[in-house]
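Prompt: For my understanding, could you write out one protein's sequence and C-alpha cells?
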Amino acid sequence: MVSAKRDKGFSFERGILTVDGFIKAEDLWQQLDDSDVDFGRVKEVVLMNMGGRSIPQIGLEAFYNLEKVTFKSGINNIPGLLFVSEIEYEDDNGEVKKDSFFKNLREVDCGSVENINPMAFWGSLIKKLVLHPENKDYRKIINSCPGLVQLKFDDGCVIEKQELSGAILEHINSIEFGDNCVVNNENFELLSHLSRVKFGDNCLIDCSFEACPKLKTVEIGNNCVVKSSFSNTANIEEIKLAESVKFEGMDSFVGKFRVDNDRERKVCIIDKYGRVIKSFTQSTRDSTYGSKEWPFPVYLKRLDTVKDSRRNMLGRPIYKDVIRYAIDREKYEKNK
C-alpha cells in the first residue's frame, strides 16, 4: 500500500489512486515515478481539483487495468474522446497498426462536472454511467456511451420535459434513481433489455415504463409519490415497496395490481385491460402474522396467471387472465 501526504497531490490505497490538485501532467508523473505505485494494480482513479485542461494530459491509459474513473469537485470540464478504447495509425512503413487502451474500464462517475463534451466517452467500453444534478444535458452524455447497460441518476437529479427523449437506451438493463429525485413527464418505453428499476427515498415519480418485456424487479423507497405507469410489463416478478409510498396514479401498475397505502393497504388485482377483478385489504391482521401489522417494506412476488370469471349483463361468464401476486414473506424475513 502506498499513501502520500495531501500536499503531494495523490494517494494510493486498496487499488484506488486519488489525484488531487495537479494542473501540469509532468508534476503528477514526477510524483508517481518517485513512488512505488504499481500501475497494473490501479483499479480506480479519482480526479479532483485539477482543472479541465489537465485531464487528457495525465495519461490515464497508463493504468492498463483501470476499471472505474470518478470525477469529483474542482474539475471544469470533461473533454471529448477521453477513453477511446482503440486507435488505428500508420507506422513509418505505411502499415496500419492498432493500439488498445482502457480494455477494462467499465464505469464512470461524472461527479459535479458541469461541462461534459458530447463526445466525452465515445469509443469507450463503458457499461455503467453515474450522473449527477450538476451534469448538463443528460441525453448527450448517455449517447456518448453506446454500449451502456447500467444507468444511475444520483441524489437530487431532476429529469423532466422529455429531457431523455432521443437518448440511446436500447441496451440498458438497469435504471436507478437516488434519493430526492424528480422524474416528471418522461417515457421509458420499449426498452427490450430493461430488467430492474429502483427509486430511492423522497422521489416524485411521474413517468412511464411501458412495454418493457424483461422488466422483472421494481423497487420504490420511502416517502415517494408515484404517478407513473408500468403498463404492458406482464413479466414483473417482484415489487419492493416502502411503507410510506403514496400512489396517486389510478393505474400505477396497470395489468398487475394497485396499492393504496393511505388508510387501508389494499391490493387490487387488475386484468390486462386495467379493470379491477379482485381486491383485498391487509391492514392490521394477517393469517400468518396474527395481530402484527402487514410487514414493510413489502416484497410482492408473482405467483401465476389464472383464469378468473365474471358475468356480463346477460349472466354469461367472461373469462379473463389474471396475474396473481402474494407477499413474499421469506424475502421479508431475510432482508429485515
In short: The two ends are 37 Å apart (CA to CA). The chain has a mean pLDDT of 75. Residues 269 and 278 are 5 Å apart (CA to CA).
